[in-house]
Amino acid sequence: APSIVWFRDDLRVADHPALHAAIERGAPMVCVYVLDEESRGIRPLGGAARWWLHGSLTALADALDQHSGRLVLRRGPADRVIRALVDETRAGAVFWNRRYGGPERDLDARLKQALRDDGLVVESYAANLLFEPWTIRTAQGTPFSVFTPFWRACRSAPEPRHPLPAPNGADAITPADAATDDLDDWDLLPTHPDWAGGLRDAWTPGADAAHARLRDFLDDDLVDYADGRDVPSEAATSRLSPHLRWGELSPYEVWHAVRERRSDGAGASRFLTELGWREFAWHVLFHAPDLATRNWRAEFDAFPWPRLHPTALRAWEEGRTGVPLVDAGMRELWSTGTMHNRVRMVTASFLTKNLLVDWRRGEQWFWDTLVDADAASNPFNWQWVAGSGADAAPYFRVFNPELQATKFDPDGVYVKRWVPEAGTDEYPEPIVDLKETREAALAAYEHVKAAR
Ligand code: FAD
């Protein structure tokens, strides 16, 4: 009886334990991706993510094809779709790599039980995180809420396993018969208007591009990563985040590539720590599944968000706040589907503290516009900036966008790239006074202190 390999956030063929297991099993195989926009609690993808997914599925179909496999596309509530596929193909086994979001875990657990009750072999694997969230615990057996001890615990856990090899040979996979949707019918790409030109220029989805990116980063930027990572005008970071988000590259592949290259340097250690923040975000989400909607620190429920000022939110989204570094970041985001980490912090601080807009509004905009938006890192980092999150920045740390620009973009290279009119008459005055709004934010924070 055939095996089903259910691809989710792991759009690759190398270091893919579920695919590996199906190949070992030896039976014909259905490799399926399910576009699930219906199951309860599963967050629909944002626009930039849909664009990326189209490219990534195209690349995955090619990669499977090189091993004689075939990618089957289906759409609908995932549990129903997989069960229908089992019936259609008379499959005897289903394999997948684990997901860590709350609704996804519930769905997977229910489906696994139902299929096992029907006599199928169902196995799930660790593939997208280096450390399974439930295995890293404090001495008291509780989840971590502070990064440094979390990462220390990870580093003293057994070293992450080595990556599995890609399927071996041009006929490694025997496809089983199953009908597929046409990817173009999913309408993942924007048409009217086509806003994706800048994304196409900036990115190539897929595992081949991901591996090329990793090699370039290791060759050119890893050594100076510790210093270069904060300068937004330079391409000094890895730019691997969307590839990791979609699992075109596994964290195991990245981890061992860095370790083999130079595990001793400051650049390597800093870079591995950043991968650690990704692990931490998922650890926090695993233990607080409603991270995108609820303050991780409950006392922030007392924060008196003023009534939403839609024009201020709009100006922020469109990069028209009159604050050059903020506008540069927001325009980079809209144009390319990404934003430098330093500037993400500055723009998020500006929205939540200077404009006093609820972090959830900003999180939602990033969710829709980032190619790397994921269910853990995005809300985790928003809450980190807003002060309501795990191991968050202290509330009084209101990023001053002018000082940040002086420090990290001293020659204005980054700002000029995205806001060429800055400094001329055409450029508007700031929509708010930075000093006054900072004070208003600190005053609002008194309510949180009182609720503590
Ligand atoms: P590098 O500096 O090369 O870092 C290597 C990898 O480490 C990244 O690819 C990423 O996987 C991981 N990483 C680095 N920093 C973080 C971090 N703070 N949190 C989690 N993982 C991290 N990152 C996302 O992947 N998805 C998001 O949706 C996301 N939303 C964010 C929202 C805000 C408000 C902020 C301040 C940060 C957000 N980040 C998010 C974190 C960070 O900005 C990006 O991971 C980083 O800019 C990606 O660029 P890079 O791949 O060149 O990173």
Automatic annotation (TrEMBL):
Belongs to the DNA photolyase family. This is Deoxyribodipyrimidine photo-lyase. One of its GO terms (molecular function) is FAD binding. The record marks W305, W359, W382 as: Electron transfer via tryptophanyl radical. Binds 1 FAD per subunit. FAD binds at Y225, T237, S238, R239, L240, S241, F271, D372, A373, D374. SUPFAM superfamilies: Cryptochrome/photolyase FAD-binding domain, Cryptochrome/photolyase, N-terminal domain. The keyword Lyase applies. PROSITE patterns: DNA_PHOTOLYASES_1_1 (PS00394), DNA_PHOTOLYASES_1_2 (PS00691), PHR_CRY_ALPHA_BETA (PS51645). It comes from the Bacteria. Residues 1-130 form the Photolyase/cryptochrome alpha/beta domain. One of its GO terms (biological process) is response to stress. Keywords: Chromophore, FAD, Flavoprotein, Lyase. Pfam families: DNA_photolyase, FAD_binding_7. Its cofactor is FAD.
